[in-house]
């Protein structure tokens, strides 16, 4: 009898959980943010929630003021109504579509590899993609918009920009990867930082590199990720002169410098977004763990 009651109770619990999931599309949206390389191209969330680094965002952009129930709401989510600091007098109309971004700084101000801070400053500011809006009501200097797509919660002060479609580049076959590819001779840069300021990366990680439009990078380009033997610039731990000697485990009679030996080709990634001096890179193949400070080159 107890077993029957327990079974009924478990069935009700599972049914309730299923109903809650079906009525909560926010959960489904978040779950879709990890693209599958098995598909023909990155999915919508991979492209529009990839974040970016840029120095091209103006300081006078309109912003989120607050939203309905502002007395009790500190954040706003999918389908909520919010207020933006731009209205009919500034050309806003019902049906206009906007994207929302938020500037962020690394909460742990540590330089993980040589030149990281200088490179990041030259690239610009890190911006998080937080969502998209559609205007449903317009007043002279304020508009009400509904959150129609979300990567994260929205909050007061988030920057509102006219929505611009991002190209969705196709993946190339994984078997085309060349572990022993020669130097391409094209622009070379570094992985400066990763999504949410991560410092180590694998397959499907999103990273930001100091190569952009000014260096000839385009959306859809593939960048090869590599590391020199014995270099101590990147985050990856290393012993001095490990490229030719290891204490207690032998050494080469001849000394070799860090760039005398073949480089380690770690993987590759596809460019999702570009600005003047930076690009957003989705790593599609990673045979060895990558770190901030590893090199990239245009294939």
Write the layout of secondary structure elements.
Blueprint: H1 2-22, H2 25-31, H3 44-48, E1 52-54, E2 64-67, E3 81-84, E4 97-104, H4 116-123, E5 125-138, E6 143-150, E7 159-162, E8 188-194, E9 200-201, E10 206-209, E11 222-227, E12 264-274, E13 279-286, E14 290-291, E15 295-298
Antiparallel strand pairs: 1-5, 2-3, 3-6, 4-5, 4-7, 5-6, 8-10, 8-15, 9-14, 10-13, 11-12, 11-15, 12-13
Explain the overall architecture.
The chain is of the alpha+beta class and about 300 residues long. The chain has two domains: about 45-160, no CATH class; about 175-299, no CATH class. It contains four helices and 15 strands. It has helices spanning about 1-20, 25-30, 45-50, 115-125, and strands at about 50-55, 65, 80-85, 95-105, 125-140, 145-150, 160, 190-195, 200, 205-210, 220-225, 265-275, 280-285, 290, 295-299. Strands 1, 2, 3, 4, 5, 6 and 7 form a seven-stranded antiparallel sheet that branches. A hairpin with a 4-residue loop joins strand 12 and strand 13. The protein is elongated.
Short description:
The protein is α+β, with helices and mostly antiparallel strands.
Question: Would you tell me the overall average pLDDT?
Answer: 88
Approximate shape: elongated
Count of folded domains: 2
Instruction: Report low-confidence residues grouped into runs of 5 or more.
Output: 1-37
How do the SSEs run, as a string of H and E?
HHHEEEEHEEEEEEEEEEE
Helix content, binned percent: 10-25%
Number of strands: 15
Distance between the termini: 67 Å
- Give the biggest beta sheet: 7 strands, antiparallel
Which class of secondary structure composition applies to the elements?
alpha+beta
Helical segment count: 4
- Strand portion, in percent? 25-35%
């Amino acid at each position: 009898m107890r077993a029957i009651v327990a079974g009924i109770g478990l069935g009700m619990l599972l049914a309730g959980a299923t109903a809650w999931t079906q009525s909560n599309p926010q959960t489904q949206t978040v779950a879709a943010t990890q693209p599958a390389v098995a598909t023909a191209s990155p999915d919508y969330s991979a492209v529009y929630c990839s974040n970016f680094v840029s120095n091209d965002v103006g300081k006078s952009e309109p912003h989120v003021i607050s939203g309905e129930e502002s007395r009790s709401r500190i954040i706003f989510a999918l389908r909520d109504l919010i207020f933006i600091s731009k209205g009919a007098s500034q050309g806003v109309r019902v049906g206009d579509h906007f994207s929302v971004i938020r500037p962020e700084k690394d909460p742990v101000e540590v330089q993980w590899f040589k030149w990281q801070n200088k490179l990041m400053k030259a690239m610009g500011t890190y911006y998080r993609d937080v969502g998209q809006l559609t205007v449903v009501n317009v007043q002279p200097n304020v508009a009400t918009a509904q959150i129609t797509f979300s990567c994260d919660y929205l909050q007061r002060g988030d920057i509102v920009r006219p929505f611009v479609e991002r190209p969705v580049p196709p993946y190339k076959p994984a078997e085309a990867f060349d572990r022993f590819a020669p130097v391409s001779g094209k622009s070379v840069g570094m992985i400066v930082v990763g999504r949410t300021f991560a410092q180590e990366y694998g397959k499907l990680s999103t990273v930001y590199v100091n190569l952009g439009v000014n260096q000839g990078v385009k959306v859809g380009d593939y960048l090869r990720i590599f590391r020199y033997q014995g270099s101590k610039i990147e985050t990856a731990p290393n012993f001095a002169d490990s490229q030719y000697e290891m204490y207690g485990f032998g050494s080469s009679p001849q000394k070799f410098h860090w760039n005398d030996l073949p480089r380690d080709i770690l993987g590759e990634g596809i460019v999702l977004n570009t600005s003047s001096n930076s690009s957003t890179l989705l790593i599609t193949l990673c045979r060895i763990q990558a770190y901030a400070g590893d090199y990239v080159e245009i294939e």
